[in-house]
Amino acid sequence: xxxxxxxxxxxxxxxxxxxxxxxxxxxxxxxxxxxxxxxxxxxxxxxxxxxxxxxxxxxxxxxxxxxxxxxxxxxxxxxxxxxxxxxxxxxxxxxxxxxxxxxxxxxxxxxxxxxxxxxxxxxxxxxxxxxxxxxxxxxxxxxxxxxxxxxxxxxxxxxxxxxxxxxxxxxxxxxxxxxxxxxxxxxxxxxxxxxxxxxxxxxxxxxxxxxxxxxxxxxxxxxxxxxxxxxxxxxxxxxxxxxxxxxxxxxxxxxxxxxxxxxxxxxxxxxxxxxxxxxxxxxxxxxxxxxxxx
Length: 294
Prior knowledge:
Elements: E1 3-17, E2 20-22, H1 24-32, E3 38-42, E4 45-55, E5 60-69, E6 75-77, E7 83-85, E8 94-103, E9 108-112, H2 120-131, E10 134-139, H3 145-150, E11 155-164, H4 178-188, E12 192-198, H5 211-221, E13 226-235, E14 238-243, E15 250-258, E16 261-262, H6 264-277, H7 279-286
Antiparallel strand pairs: 1-2, 1-9, 1-10, 1-15, 3-4, 4-5, 5-8, 6-7, 8-9, 11-12, 11-13, 13-14, 15-16
């Protein structure tokens, strides 16, 4: 029996229609009630919600996101240097799977990280399309670090963001700050890029970045290709450094594999085990009224 270690992260979900908040479970129920394929396209790749199950009176859901890669397929080979193309029929591609659990009580998403698979923003888009809503998943941080960072009472003074070039550029955040970063990496063929910026010139103080820069930095936290996000904010006259990735609630779980993929039932059990492992952090973020998922 082979096993593999997987990283699991936690997100708080929210859906809005015309500015009004709606239950995110509504989108999952809508998808579950239909047999049609729900998918989004990312460049030449297709990401689709392959499996969706519900329990606890449609309060909890578990599913599998699949990404089918149809271009730039690698060769297979051996140590002697022999190579040949992987034969794929028309309409076929390489498949990467990403597993998740969503619980309505806390709008909590438990999401397996897969650098080569679908990122959490793909699930947000699929759910949003199902009910014509805007869906966002914000990473859950220890000690409510993201809330401190995004608070209108705090000012962004400095930040450092380091990223690896994404395998699918269309999954890179699309804003005034991130777009030039991706362009710079592509033009220089760089594997990674680190950006450090300060609102103050040497010998000056009191300047701050606009609020939209906070939102741009927040978008990086939810993506697998981000390697480092450190910020320095000022609140009530105090300078507070925050490591937004280090403060993310995460878990590592060992899962039994069946050939290329994890055993589905074992992966879902690992997601639930991860939730129990970080229960104290989740209670600190949401409160302590959570009941078991099962």
